[in-house]
Amino acid sequence: MVATKSLAAIAALSLINVAHAWYNELPSCLEPFEPYVYTGCFDNGLPGQKEALSLRTDLDQHNMTTETCVAHCKGNNYRLAGLSYYGVCYCGQTVSTTLLPEDQCSFPCSGNSSQTCGGDTQINIYMDPTFPPLEDQKDVSEYVPVGCWTDDSNQGRALFYRQDNLDSATLTTEKCLQSCLNGGFPFAGTEYGGECYCGVVVGNGTDLATDASTCNVPCNGNPEQTCGGPSRLSLYVAKDLQSLKPCGTPPDTSSTITTPPVTSPTPPPTSTKTTSAPVCTTTTVTPPTCEYSVGKWCSNPIPDWNDKKGCFLSFGSMQAPNCELLLESRLP
Q: At the top level of its lineage, which domain of life is listed (predicted)?
């Protein structure tokens, strides 16, 4: 039976506030690894609403299997993998939606019709059992500083998930670390005094700064602390939030993966190893319903239709559809 008890009460993450696809996905894991454990059928939200897992991958959804999606999430160091709508693959660290009856996930996978790939607005989710339990990570002391890092690569940001739910004017190191801990992210970083980022890996093209003094901007919420600098990130890592057996580590051959068959909507047999996903149970911030022409992320927040100043500011960085229309009507 699929367990329904949450492993931890954790906060939902805000999505990055940029118009570019700032995250270059890593290759799928090609080495044998300990199989993911089936967790259950979850709500994946209506179009434009918040989805269950934070990363919608760029994998071909027309030839998708459970193994393909799971290997990709493993290679990118995510705790969770999910499949929806015949073959859309997602990865994430936590689940931000509710568990559903198993028979609501009934669509066959496009690459293997004997496997289930969610439904119209449902998603089958699997968990990497090689991660330590989230309930064991209780406070920000899990994070240790690892220096001043560059964040000016043309390949993307050093850390992918910007925490726009935090107030930049009052940002402290502890607030940033707590937000990343809540989301199960092993990497956290502050930048330019008031920006906070989280991630599962450090992005390509990012390096330890040759001059540590370039991280020299006081945190807006505590001038005694340093929060990075211009294109410089004060980086922290919590190793207990990382997989104990990342891609390339020989698997435990006693483990087995559970794939729910299309013909049987019942939960996996009781003899099969199952677990519950780390589900967000706190108040969440619902992102806007827009979707960028590049990438797949909505901004948080989008200015109101009549907010001319806000639209001008956001138009240059995120190309929000409502702002674009407003600007077209008001520009000379």
A: Eukaryota
Contact 38, 81 (CB under 8 A): no
- Taking the CA of residue 224 as centre, how many other CA atoms within 13 Å lie in the half-sphere pointing to its CB? 1
Cβ burial 264-295 (10 Å sphere, 16+ → b, else e): eeebbeeeeebbbbbbbeeeeeebbebebeeb
Report the topology of domain 134-241.
Hepatocyte Growth Factor (3.50.4)
Q: Does residue 132 have a cis bond before it (omega within 30 degrees)?
A: no
Q: What is the pLDDT of residues 165-189, one digit of tens each?
A: 999 999 999 999 999 998 889 999 9
The domain spans of the chain are 1-10+24-131+244-285, 134-241
User: 113 or 136: which carries more pLDDT confidence?
Assistant: 113
pTM of the prediction?
Answer: 0.69
The mean pLDDT of the chain is: 77
What's the average model confidence in pLDDT over 156-161? 89
Task: From 223, 211, 222, 219, select the one nearest 195 (Cα to Cα).
Answer: 219
Tell me which residue has tokens 């698997």.
251
CB 265 within 8 A of CB 102: yes
DSSP notation for 292-314:
-SSSS---SSPPPTT-HHHHHHH
CA separation for the pair 184, 214 (Å, rounded): 28
pLDDT digits (tens, 9 = 90+) for 285-311: 333 333 333 333 333 344 455 555 555
Instruction: Please state, as a whole number, how many other Cβ atoms lie within 10 Å of the Cβ of residue 140.
Output: 18
Q: d(Cα 71, Cα 220) in Å, to the nearest integer?
A: 40
Sign of CA dihedral 314, 318, 319, 322: negative
